[in-house]
Write a structure and sequence with these properties.
Among the domains are: 92 residues, Irregular (30s Ribosomal Protein S18), CATH 4.10.640.40; 125 residues; 74 residues, Leucine-rich repeat, LRR (right-handed beta-alpha superhelix), CATH 3.80.10. It is built from 12 helices and 10 strands. The strands form 4 sheets. It has a 3-stranded antiparallel β-sheet with strand order 4-3-5. It has a 3-stranded antiparallel β-sheet with strand order 7-6-8. Strands 1-2 form a two-stranded antiparallel sheet. The two termini are 69 Å apart. The protein is mainly alpha-helical and 435 residues long. Keywords: Metal-binding, Zinc, Zinc-finger. This is B box-type domain-containing protein. InterPro entries: CEBP_ZZ_sf (IPR038446), LRR_dom_sf (IPR032675), TRIM45/56/19-like (IPR047153), Znf_B-box (IPR000315).
Length: 435
Protein backbone atom coordinates (compact mmCIF):
# COMPACT_ATOMS: atom_id res chain seq x y z
CA UNK A 1 0.00 0.00 0.00
CA UNK A 2 2.82 2.37 0.91
CA UNK A 3 4.84 1.41 -2.17
CA UNK A 4 1.89 2.11 -4.46
CA UNK A 5 1.28 5.48 -2.80
CA UNK A 6 4.79 6.95 -3.13
CA UNK A 7 5.87 5.98 0.37
CA UNK A 8 2.86 7.57 2.10
CA UNK A 9 0.27 5.67 4.14
CA UNK A 10 -3.23 7.18 4.12
CA UNK A 11 -5.69 6.42 6.91
CA UNK A 12 -8.21 3.78 5.72
CA UNK A 13 -10.99 5.83 7.34
CA UNK A 14 -10.18 8.63 4.89
CA UNK A 15 -10.04 11.31 7.57
CA UNK A 16 -7.19 13.06 5.76
CA UNK A 17 -4.47 11.67 8.04
CA UNK A 18 -1.28 10.66 6.19
CA UNK A 19 2.03 9.33 7.48
CA UNK A 20 5.36 8.54 5.91
CA UNK A 21 6.13 4.85 5.46
CA UNK A 22 9.23 5.08 7.66
CA UNK A 23 7.12 6.35 10.58
CA UNK A 24 4.59 3.49 10.63
CA UNK A 25 6.35 1.92 13.60
CA UNK A 26 5.54 4.98 15.71
CA UNK A 27 1.78 4.43 15.38
CA UNK A 28 -0.04 3.01 18.44
CA UNK A 29 -1.06 -0.63 18.29
CA UNK A 30 -4.65 -1.50 17.45
CA UNK A 31 -5.51 -3.59 20.49
CA UNK A 32 -8.75 -4.85 18.96
CA UNK A 33 -7.03 -6.18 15.87
CA UNK A 34 -4.20 -7.66 17.92
CA UNK A 35 -6.73 -9.41 20.16
CA UNK A 36 -8.47 -10.88 17.12
CA UNK A 37 -5.17 -12.12 15.71
CA UNK A 38 -4.31 -13.78 19.00
CA UNK A 39 -7.77 -15.34 19.13
CA UNK A 40 -7.38 -16.84 15.66
CA UNK A 41 -3.82 -17.97 16.31
CA UNK A 42 -4.68 -19.49 19.70
CA UNK A 43 -8.38 -20.41 19.70
CA UNK A 44 -8.00 -22.25 23.04
CA UNK A 45 -6.19 -19.44 24.83
CA UNK A 46 -9.23 -18.73 27.02
CA UNK A 47 -9.06 -22.16 28.68
CA UNK A 48 -7.98 -21.59 32.31
CA UNK A 49 -5.25 -23.49 34.13
CA UNK A 50 -5.97 -26.03 36.83
CA UNK A 51 -6.56 -24.25 40.15
CA UNK A 52 -4.69 -27.02 42.04
CA UNK A 53 -1.50 -27.67 40.09
CA UNK A 54 -1.56 -24.37 38.18
CA UNK A 55 0.31 -26.13 35.37
CA UNK A 56 -2.06 -28.18 33.26
CA UNK A 57 -5.01 -26.80 31.35
CA UNK A 58 -8.25 -27.26 33.21
CA UNK A 59 -10.72 -29.76 31.78
CA UNK A 60 -13.37 -29.97 34.48
CA UNK A 61 -15.36 -27.61 36.64
CA UNK A 62 -16.62 -28.64 40.06
CA UNK A 63 -20.09 -27.22 40.37
CA UNK A 64 -20.47 -28.32 43.99
CA UNK A 65 -18.62 -27.01 47.04
CA UNK A 66 -15.22 -26.75 45.37
CA UNK A 67 -16.15 -24.20 42.70
CA UNK A 68 -12.74 -24.69 41.05
CA UNK A 69 -11.27 -25.78 37.74
CA UNK A 70 -9.28 -29.02 37.62
CA UNK A 71 -7.26 -31.00 35.15
CA UNK A 72 -8.17 -34.68 34.92
CA UNK A 73 -5.29 -35.79 37.13
CA UNK A 74 -6.12 -33.36 39.95
CA UNK A 75 -9.84 -34.12 39.70
CA UNK A 76 -9.24 -37.82 40.17
CA UNK A 77 -6.87 -37.16 43.07
CA UNK A 78 -9.30 -34.94 44.99
CA UNK A 79 -12.64 -36.51 44.12
CA UNK A 80 -11.86 -40.18 44.59
CA UNK A 81 -12.69 -40.37 48.29
CA UNK A 82 -15.39 -39.36 50.72
CA UNK A 83 -18.10 -36.88 49.92
CA UNK A 84 -16.03 -35.45 47.06
CA UNK A 85 -17.05 -38.45 45.00
CA UNK A 86 -20.55 -37.01 44.70
CA UNK A 87 -19.49 -33.56 43.48
CA UNK A 88 -21.04 -32.45 40.21
CA UNK A 89 -18.48 -32.47 37.41
CA UNK A 90 -18.96 -30.20 34.39
CA UNK A 91 -16.81 -29.45 31.40
CA UNK A 92 -14.71 -26.38 31.97
CA UNK A 93 -16.47 -24.88 28.94
CA UNK A 94 -19.74 -25.08 30.89
CA UNK A 95 -18.30 -23.19 33.84
CA UNK A 96 -20.86 -20.56 34.96
CA UNK A 97 -20.07 -16.96 34.33
CA UNK A 98 -18.32 -15.22 37.19
CA UNK A 99 -20.77 -12.70 38.60
CA UNK A 100 -19.35 -9.89 40.77
CA UNK A 101 -20.51 -9.56 44.36
CA UNK A 102 -22.66 -6.83 45.80
CA UNK A 103 -20.63 -4.02 47.32
CA UNK A 104 -23.26 -3.27 49.97
CA UNK A 105 -23.68 -6.88 51.14
CA UNK A 106 -20.22 -8.24 50.48
CA UNK A 107 -20.04 -9.67 53.96
CA UNK A 108 -23.07 -11.81 53.21
CA UNK A 109 -21.49 -13.26 50.07
CA UNK A 110 -24.26 -11.88 47.91
CA UNK A 111 -23.58 -12.04 44.15
CA UNK A 112 -25.06 -9.58 41.69
CA UNK A 113 -27.25 -12.11 39.95
CA UNK A 114 -30.29 -9.92 39.13
CA UNK A 115 -30.84 -7.03 36.75
CA UNK A 116 -33.33 -4.31 37.68
CA UNK A 117 -35.05 -3.18 34.49
CA UNK A 118 -36.40 -0.03 36.14
CA UNK A 119 -33.08 1.17 37.56
CA UNK A 120 -30.92 -0.43 34.83
CA UNK A 121 -28.42 -1.82 37.31
CA UNK A 122 -27.24 -5.11 38.80
CA UNK A 123 -28.39 -6.17 42.25
CA UNK A 124 -28.05 -9.03 44.67
CA UNK A 125 -30.91 -11.02 46.18
CA UNK A 126 -30.90 -8.85 49.31
CA UNK A 127 -31.14 -5.63 47.31
CA UNK A 128 -33.89 -7.12 45.19
CA UNK A 129 -36.02 -8.00 48.20
CA UNK A 130 -35.70 -4.63 49.91
CA UNK A 131 -34.45 -1.76 47.75
CA UNK A 132 -35.98 -3.02 44.48
CA UNK A 133 -38.92 -4.89 45.92
CA UNK A 134 -41.56 -3.77 43.40
CA UNK A 135 -39.24 -3.41 40.42
CA UNK A 136 -39.31 -5.71 37.43
CA UNK A 137 -36.15 -7.80 37.26
CA UNK A 138 -34.51 -10.69 35.43
CA UNK A 139 -31.43 -12.82 36.02
CA UNK A 140 -28.20 -11.13 35.03
CA UNK A 141 -27.32 -14.15 32.90
CA UNK A 142 -30.61 -13.84 31.01
CA UNK A 143 -30.15 -10.12 30.58
CA UNK A 144 -26.57 -10.55 29.35
CA UNK A 145 -27.73 -13.23 26.94
CA UNK A 146 -30.53 -11.03 25.58
CA UNK A 147 -28.11 -8.09 25.45
CA UNK A 148 -25.68 -10.18 23.43
CA UNK A 149 -28.45 -11.27 21.08
CA UNK A 150 -29.68 -7.70 20.72
CA UNK A 151 -26.18 -6.44 20.04
CA UNK A 152 -25.56 -9.25 17.56
CA UNK A 153 -28.82 -8.48 15.76
CA UNK A 154 -27.96 -4.80 15.74
CA UNK A 155 -24.50 -5.48 14.32
CA UNK A 156 -26.01 -7.81 11.73
CA UNK A 157 -28.45 -5.06 10.79
CA UNK A 158 -25.62 -2.57 10.44
CA UNK A 159 -23.60 -5.10 8.46
CA UNK A 160 -26.56 -5.76 6.18
CA UNK A 161 -27.05 -2.04 5.65
CA UNK A 162 -23.34 -1.44 5.03
CA UNK A 163 -23.13 -4.39 2.64
CA UNK A 164 -26.20 -3.20 0.77
CA UNK A 165 -24.86 0.31 0.50
CA UNK A 166 -21.44 -0.95 -0.57
CA UNK A 167 -23.06 -2.98 -3.31
CA UNK A 168 -25.19 0.00 -4.22
CA UNK A 169 -22.10 2.22 -4.36
CA UNK A 170 -20.43 -0.23 -6.73
CA UNK A 171 -23.55 -0.20 -8.88
CA UNK A 172 -23.58 3.59 -8.73
CA UNK A 173 -19.99 3.72 -9.97
CA UNK A 174 -21.00 1.52 -12.89
CA UNK A 175 -24.10 3.65 -13.47
CA UNK A 176 -21.99 6.82 -13.38
CA UNK A 177 -19.57 5.42 -15.94
CA UNK A 178 -22.35 4.14 -18.21
CA UNK A 179 -24.30 7.39 -17.81
CA UNK A 180 -21.19 9.42 -18.63
CA UNK A 181 -20.49 7.36 -21.74
CA UNK A 182 -24.12 7.65 -22.81
CA UNK A 183 -24.15 11.43 -22.27
CA UNK A 184 -20.84 11.80 -24.09
CA UNK A 185 -22.27 9.86 -27.02
CA UNK A 186 -25.39 12.04 -27.00
CA UNK A 187 -23.28 15.21 -26.96
CA UNK A 188 -20.98 14.12 -29.76
CA UNK A 189 -23.89 12.79 -31.82
CA UNK A 190 -26.01 15.93 -31.35
CA UNK A 191 -23.13 18.34 -31.97
CA UNK A 192 -21.93 16.30 -34.95
CA UNK A 193 -25.45 16.37 -36.37
CA UNK A 194 -25.68 20.13 -35.83
CA UNK A 195 -22.20 20.58 -37.28
CA UNK A 196 -23.19 18.52 -40.32
CA UNK A 197 -26.34 20.58 -40.81
CA UNK A 198 -24.39 23.82 -40.40
CA UNK A 199 -21.68 22.70 -42.84
CA UNK A 200 -24.26 21.56 -45.37
CA UNK A 201 -26.30 24.72 -44.99
CA UNK A 202 -23.13 26.80 -45.28
CA UNK A 203 -22.31 25.10 -48.56
CA UNK A 204 -25.85 25.61 -49.87
CA UNK A 205 -25.97 29.26 -48.78
CA UNK A 206 -22.56 30.06 -50.26
CA UNK A 207 -23.53 28.40 -53.54
CA UNK A 208 -26.75 30.40 -53.57
CA UNK A 209 -24.93 33.65 -52.82
CA UNK A 210 -22.35 32.99 -55.54
CA UNK A 211 -25.02 32.00 -58.08
CA UNK A 212 -27.04 35.12 -57.27
CA UNK A 213 -23.91 37.21 -57.66
CA UNK A 214 -23.13 35.58 -61.01
CA UNK A 215 -26.67 36.01 -62.36
CA UNK A 216 -26.97 39.62 -61.24
CA UNK A 217 -23.48 40.46 -62.47
CA UNK A 218 -24.29 39.03 -65.93
CA UNK A 219 -27.51 41.02 -66.07
CA UNK A 220 -25.79 44.26 -65.08
CA UNK A 221 -22.83 43.64 -67.37
CA UNK A 222 -25.17 42.94 -70.33
CA UNK A 223 -26.99 46.18 -69.57
CA UNK A 224 -23.67 47.98 -69.28
CA UNK A 225 -22.55 46.68 -72.68
CA UNK A 226 -25.79 47.93 -74.23
CA UNK A 227 -25.21 51.36 -72.72
CA UNK A 228 -21.60 51.33 -73.88
CA UNK A 229 -22.80 50.66 -77.48
CA UNK A 230 -25.17 53.59 -77.31
CA UNK A 231 -22.41 55.73 -75.85
CA UNK A 232 -20.14 54.87 -78.81
CA UNK A 233 -22.92 55.73 -81.26
CA UNK A 234 -23.59 58.96 -79.40
CA UNK A 235 -19.92 59.95 -79.57
CA UNK A 236 -19.92 59.35 -83.34
CA UNK A 237 -22.99 61.53 -83.82
CA UNK A 238 -21.53 64.24 -81.60
CA UNK A 239 -18.32 64.29 -83.68
CA UNK A 240 -20.35 64.59 -86.89
CA UNK A 241 -22.37 67.42 -85.39
CA UNK A 242 -19.21 69.25 -84.34
CA UNK A 243 -17.75 68.96 -87.84
CA UNK A 244 -20.93 70.23 -89.49
CA UNK A 245 -21.23 73.14 -87.10
CA UNK A 246 -17.53 74.02 -87.46
CA UNK A 247 -17.82 74.59 -91.27
CA UNK A 248 -20.68 77.04 -90.72
CA UNK A 249 -22.15 75.86 -94.00
CA UNK A 250 -25.93 76.08 -93.92
CA UNK A 251 -26.34 73.51 -96.68
CA UNK A 252 -24.33 70.87 -94.80
CA UNK A 253 -26.35 71.53 -91.68
CA UNK A 254 -29.59 71.15 -93.60
CA UNK A 255 -28.33 67.95 -95.23
CA UNK A 256 -27.39 66.56 -91.78
CA UNK A 257 -30.74 67.47 -90.27
CA UNK A 258 -32.56 64.27 -91.24
CA UNK A 259 -29.78 61.82 -90.24
CA UNK A 260 -29.51 63.51 -86.84
CA UNK A 261 -33.28 63.41 -86.35
CA UNK A 262 -33.41 59.73 -87.38
CA UNK A 263 -30.58 58.89 -84.94
CA UNK A 264 -32.18 60.79 -82.09
CA UNK A 265 -35.57 59.21 -82.75
CA UNK A 266 -34.13 55.69 -83.03
CA UNK A 267 -31.98 56.16 -79.95
CA UNK A 268 -34.92 57.48 -77.91
CA UNK A 269 -36.86 54.38 -78.91
CA UNK A 270 -33.98 52.12 -77.82
CA UNK A 271 -33.62 53.98 -74.52
CA UNK A 272 -37.32 53.58 -73.89
CA UNK A 273 -36.94 49.87 -74.48
CA UNK A 274 -33.74 49.75 -72.41
CA UNK A 275 -35.35 50.85 -69.18
CA UNK A 276 -33.23 51.95 -66.21
CA UNK A 277 -31.83 48.90 -64.46
CA UNK A 278 -32.97 48.32 -60.87
CA UNK A 279 -32.16 45.59 -58.35
CA UNK A 280 -33.35 44.44 -54.98
CA UNK A 281 -30.68 44.01 -52.33
CA UNK A 282 -30.29 40.42 -51.22
CA UNK A 283 -29.79 39.55 -47.55
CA UNK A 284 -30.09 36.57 -45.18
CA UNK A 285 -32.59 37.49 -42.45
CA UNK A 286 -32.59 33.98 -40.94
CA UNK A 287 -28.89 34.33 -40.14
CA UNK A 288 -29.95 36.42 -37.16
CA UNK A 289 -31.64 33.31 -35.80
CA UNK A 290 -28.20 31.70 -35.62
CA UNK A 291 -27.31 34.15 -32.88
CA UNK A 292 -30.29 32.93 -30.88
CA UNK A 293 -29.28 29.37 -31.68
CA UNK A 294 -25.78 30.12 -30.47
CA UNK A 295 -27.22 31.39 -27.20
CA UNK A 296 -29.38 28.29 -26.83
CA UNK A 297 -26.43 26.00 -27.57
CA UNK A 298 -24.35 27.73 -24.92
CA UNK A 299 -27.19 27.17 -22.44
CA UNK A 300 -26.94 23.40 -22.82
CA UNK A 301 -25.35 21.89 -19.71
CA UNK A 302 -25.38 18.69 -17.71
CA UNK A 303 -28.01 18.78 -14.96
CA UNK A 304 -29.44 16.34 -12.47
CA UNK A 305 -33.00 15.29 -13.16
CA UNK A 306 -35.34 17.23 -10.92
CA UNK A 307 -38.18 15.12 -9.62
CA UNK A 308 -41.13 16.07 -7.49
CA UNK A 309 -44.57 14.67 -6.89
CA UNK A 310 -46.74 17.50 -5.65
CA UNK A 311 -49.81 15.27 -5.72
CA UNK A 312 -48.13 12.86 -3.28
CA UNK A 313 -47.02 15.71 -1.01
CA UNK A 314 -50.56 17.09 -0.87
CA UNK A 315 -51.97 13.62 -0.22
CA UNK A 316 -49.62 13.11 2.74
CA UNK A 317 -50.36 16.58 4.09
CA UNK A 318 -54.12 15.96 3.94
CA UNK A 319 -54.08 12.59 5.72
CA UNK A 320 -56.11 13.22 8.91
CA UNK A 321 -54.82 10.21 10.86
CA UNK A 322 -51.04 10.49 10.95
CA UNK A 323 -50.74 7.03 12.50
CA UNK A 324 -51.72 5.33 9.24
CA UNK A 325 -50.48 6.10 5.75
CA UNK A 326 -52.44 4.41 2.96
CA UNK A 327 -50.37 5.02 -0.16
CA UNK A 328 -51.51 1.95 -2.05
CA UNK A 329 -52.16 1.66 -5.77
CA UNK A 330 -50.62 5.06 -6.59
CA UNK A 331 -47.91 3.75 -8.94
CA UNK A 332 -45.27 5.18 -6.63
CA UNK A 333 -41.61 4.70 -7.58
CA UNK A 334 -38.28 4.74 -5.75
CA UNK A 335 -38.09 8.51 -6.27
CA UNK A 336 -41.46 8.88 -4.55
CA UNK A 337 -40.10 6.87 -1.62
CA UNK A 338 -37.60 9.67 -0.97
CA UNK A 339 -40.57 11.99 -0.38
CA UNK A 340 -42.25 9.41 1.88
CA UNK A 341 -38.96 8.85 3.73
CA UNK A 342 -38.64 12.55 4.58
CA UNK A 343 -42.12 12.42 6.10
CA UNK A 344 -41.20 9.32 8.11
CA UNK A 345 -38.21 11.15 9.59
CA UNK A 346 -40.47 13.73 11.24
CA UNK A 347 -43.67 11.76 11.81
CA UNK A 348 -43.51 10.34 15.33
CA UNK A 349 -46.99 8.79 15.40
CA UNK A 350 -46.92 6.54 12.33
CA UNK A 351 -47.61 2.87 13.14
CA UNK A 352 -48.95 1.48 9.86
CA UNK A 353 -47.78 2.04 6.31
CA UNK A 354 -49.65 0.60 3.31
CA UNK A 355 -47.68 0.55 0.07
CA UNK A 356 -49.03 -2.39 -1.93
CA UNK A 357 -49.63 -2.19 -5.69
CA UNK A 358 -46.75 0.23 -6.29
CA UNK A 359 -43.49 0.08 -8.24
CA UNK A 360 -40.93 0.05 -5.42
CA UNK A 361 -37.58 -1.76 -5.62
CA UNK A 362 -34.98 -2.44 -2.94
CA UNK A 363 -33.68 1.11 -3.40
CA UNK A 364 -37.00 2.61 -2.37
CA UNK A 365 -37.21 0.20 0.56
CA UNK A 366 -33.75 1.33 1.68
CA UNK A 367 -34.92 4.96 1.70
CA UNK A 368 -37.74 3.96 4.07
CA UNK A 369 -35.43 1.89 6.28
CA UNK A 370 -32.97 4.77 6.63
CA UNK A 371 -35.78 7.14 7.55
CA UNK A 372 -37.03 4.80 10.27
CA UNK A 373 -33.52 4.56 11.71
CA UNK A 374 -33.28 8.34 12.06
CA UNK A 375 -36.64 8.67 13.82
CA UNK A 376 -35.61 8.02 17.43
CA UNK A 377 -38.46 9.90 19.10
CA UNK A 378 -40.91 7.03 18.82
CA UNK A 379 -38.69 3.98 18.56
CA UNK A 380 -41.23 1.47 19.98
CA UNK A 381 -43.89 2.66 17.56
CA UNK A 382 -41.45 2.64 14.66
CA UNK A 383 -40.58 -0.98 15.35
CA UNK A 384 -44.27 -1.83 14.95
CA UNK A 385 -44.55 -0.24 11.52
CA UNK A 386 -45.48 -2.86 8.99
CA UNK A 387 -46.32 -3.02 5.34
CA UNK A 388 -49.91 -4.25 5.13
CA UNK A 389 -50.44 -6.96 2.49
CA UNK A 390 -52.92 -6.21 -0.29
CA UNK A 391 -56.53 -7.28 0.32
CA UNK A 392 -57.80 -10.38 -1.44
CA UNK A 393 -59.49 -9.34 -4.68
CA UNK A 394 -62.92 -10.71 -5.45
CA UNK A 395 -65.63 -10.21 -8.06
CA UNK A 396 -68.84 -11.90 -6.89
CA UNK A 397 -70.76 -11.10 -10.10
CA UNK A 398 -68.06 -12.67 -12.26
CA UNK A 399 -67.82 -15.74 -10.01
CA UNK A 400 -71.61 -16.16 -10.13
CA UNK A 401 -71.62 -15.82 -13.93
CA UNK A 402 -69.04 -18.58 -14.30
CA UNK A 403 -70.82 -20.81 -11.76
CA UNK A 404 -74.16 -20.45 -13.56
CA UNK A 405 -72.55 -21.39 -16.88
CA UNK A 406 -70.37 -24.21 -15.58
CA UNK A 407 -71.96 -26.72 -17.97
CA UNK A 408 -72.00 -24.40 -20.97
CA UNK A 409 -69.54 -24.74 -23.83
CA UNK A 410 -69.37 -20.96 -24.29
CA UNK A 411 -69.47 -18.12 -21.80
CA UNK A 412 -69.78 -14.53 -23.01
CA UNK A 413 -68.42 -11.58 -21.05
CA UNK A 414 -69.89 -8.61 -22.97
CA UNK A 415 -69.00 -5.15 -21.66
CA UNK A 416 -67.56 -6.48 -18.41
CA UNK A 417 -64.35 -4.38 -18.50
CA UNK A 418 -62.40 -7.29 -17.04
CA UNK A 419 -59.01 -6.65 -15.48
CA UNK A 420 -55.98 -8.91 -15.01
CA UNK A 421 -57.27 -9.79 -11.54
CA UNK A 422 -60.64 -10.76 -13.02
CA UNK A 423 -58.93 -13.01 -15.54
CA UNK A 424 -57.10 -14.69 -12.66
CA UNK A 425 -60.51 -15.48 -11.11
CA UNK A 426 -61.68 -16.91 -14.45
CA UNK A 427 -58.57 -19.09 -14.69
CA UNK A 428 -58.99 -20.40 -11.14
CA UNK A 429 -62.68 -21.21 -11.70
CA UNK A 430 -61.87 -23.07 -14.92
CA UNK A 431 -59.18 -25.06 -13.14
CA UNK A 432 -61.68 -26.11 -10.46
CA UNK A 433 -64.20 -27.14 -13.12
CA UNK A 434 -61.61 -29.28 -14.95
CA UNK A 435 -60.67 -30.98 -11.70
Amino acid sequence: MVTDNHGVLECPKRDGMKIEGNDIGDLPLNETVRGLLQLFENPNSNIPLCDRCETNEAEHWCDSDCKHCFCTKCWDTIHEVGQYQHHKKLSVKDKPLEVPRCGEHNDEDQTLKYWCELCSKEMCGNCQQFKHKDHKFVLVTEYVKSLGEKTENGLQGVQSCVNYRSDRVDKMLTEIEEESQDNQLKVTTAIASIRQVIDEQERILLESVRKTEKDERKKVEDYKRSLQGEQQNLIGQILKFVVVCHDKNPKKLLDAKKPFEDYIKATDTKLLELKPLTRTKKHLPDLDALKNMETEIRKIKLEALKYDNEKLRQLIACIPDKSTFNLSNLKLTDLDMEIVAKELEINTSLTKLRLFMNQISDIGAQHLADALRTNTKKEPQIRKINVTPPPIYSNPQLTELITNNVNSTNVNFPSKNLTDQDMEIVANELLQVNQ
